[in-house]
Amino acid sequence: MCRHFCEFSRAGTPDKVLSQPVRDSCKRLVEELIDRGETVSVAESCTGGLLGSVFTSIPNASKVFWGGVISYDDDAKQNLIGVPENLLHIYGAVSSEVAVAMARGIREVAATTWAVALTGIAGPSGGTLQKPVGTVCIAIDGPVTDVEINRFDGNRDVVREASVDQAIILLSSCLCAKNKVDELNE
């Protein structure tokens, strides 16, 4: 019994769950944040800590990664990172408005340079016509902000991994945009 559990547990580590390109992207992102002296925090719903797990799997991430909040439940979104109740009622937990509020909330709590928030429907159930399974909203808050709504195909694990990958890409894009703004201001 224990041997089966240990084998199952090892299968769930970031090295086994996430593809090498995702880990490589995160490694480059961590290195860039270290070079800049900037920090990042995360607020995760549908990914359940997977993005935080990827960050912490990278050597030296402790220099830039503050940590995160898994705000899977609406009460957690409200009480831990200050998502206004009216946003949840008007737009629903899976919305760009709530993703932005999550990112702002965790950035304020953590006092980091950047914050990433993910909220979505990983499946296999819970989708609607307006928000089908695979709908994931990702927001970045920081010197440059952005939010996007994605629709990923695949099972729960595929949706979660694709969400983490896209969050890393979006944060990297915001860092590049900040570089361009800084260059214009010089």
Short synopsis of the structure:
The chain has 186 residues and is an alpha/beta fold. The protein has helices spanning 2-11, 14-17, 20-36, 50-56, 74-81, 85-91, 96-110, 156-185, and strands spanning 40-44, 65-70, 114-120, 135-141, 146-151. It has a 5-stranded mixed beta sheet with strand order 2-1-3-4-5, with helices on both faces.
Architecture in CATH?
Alpha-Beta Complex
Going by CATH, what is the homologous superfamily? Answer: CinA-like
Which strand order does the major sheet show? Answer: 2-1-3-4-5
Residues in helix, %: 40-55%
CATH topology: Maf protein
Q: Topology as H/E string?
A: HHHEHEHHHEEEH
Structural class: alpha/beta
Could you give a short account of the major beta sheet?
5 strands, mixed
**Overall pLDDT, averaged?**
90
Please report the first level of CATH classification, the CATH class: Alpha Beta
Provide the low-confidence segments as ranges: 1-15
Radius of gyration: 16 Å
Distance between the ends = 63 Å
Estimate nothing, just give the exact number of structural domains. Answer: 1
The fraction of residues assigned to DSSP E strands is 15-25%
Structural notes for this entry:
This protein is an alpha/beta fold and 186 residues long. It has one domain: CinA-like (Maf protein). The chain contains 8 helices and 5 strands; from the N terminus they run H-H-H-E-H-E-H-H-H-E-E-E-H. A hairpin with a 4-residue loop joins strand 4 and strand 5. The longest helix has 30 residues. The radius of gyration is 16 Å and the shape is globular. 41% of the residues are buried. The N terminus is likely disordered.
